[in-house]
Design brief:
This protein is an all-alpha fold. It has 6 helices and no strands.
Length: 140
């Protein structure tokens, strides 16, 4: 657990201080990215009001395939959302660099990040959050 916390803290320091890659003159605001990632994950995982309780009780079934897959991952690892949040932030930053994005491209980068995560959630051999291909971004 301590290793995981250290890895997450180091990843966020890299993101916060924009240590990786050739950066644009106009970067995305770190706090705004965090809020947008939270909102995106709430939508993507079907955690909106009234349906979030299934993560605690599993009595309400998710309405989306990605939400159902995430419920299984969460049953395996109670830290799955925390890890997914960190993975998503690292993926967004990587997409930002690959797209040579500027501040005005933020929405396009967010959409590309969501599409990539959704593709990864639909992989056949996904049984743990660590099986997501983008999980490897946390260990670099």
């Amino acid at each position: 657990m301590e290793d995981w916390v250290c890895m997450i803290q180091e990843s966020f320091q890299d993101l916060l201080h924009k240590r990786e890659g050739d950066r644009a003159m106009w970067e995305y605001p770190f706090a705004v990215a965090g809020v947008n990632i939270t909102f995106m994950l709430i939508q993507m995982l079907d955690l909106e009001a009234g349906h979030a309780n299934y993560y605690r009780s599993l009595t309400v079934k998710p309405r989306t395939l990605v939400g159902a897959i995430f419920a299984k991952l969460l049953a395996e690892n109670e830290q799955a959302f925390d890890l997914l949040y960190c993975i998503t932030f690292k993926l967004l930053d990587r997409q930002w660099l690959q797209m040579h994005a500027s501040y005005m491209d933020f929405n396009s980068v967010m959409k590309a990040t969501r599409r990539q995560l959704e593709r990864e959630f639909l992989l056949d051999d996904l049984t743990r959050i660590e099986d997501l291909p983008s999980y490897s971004f946390l260990t670099r």
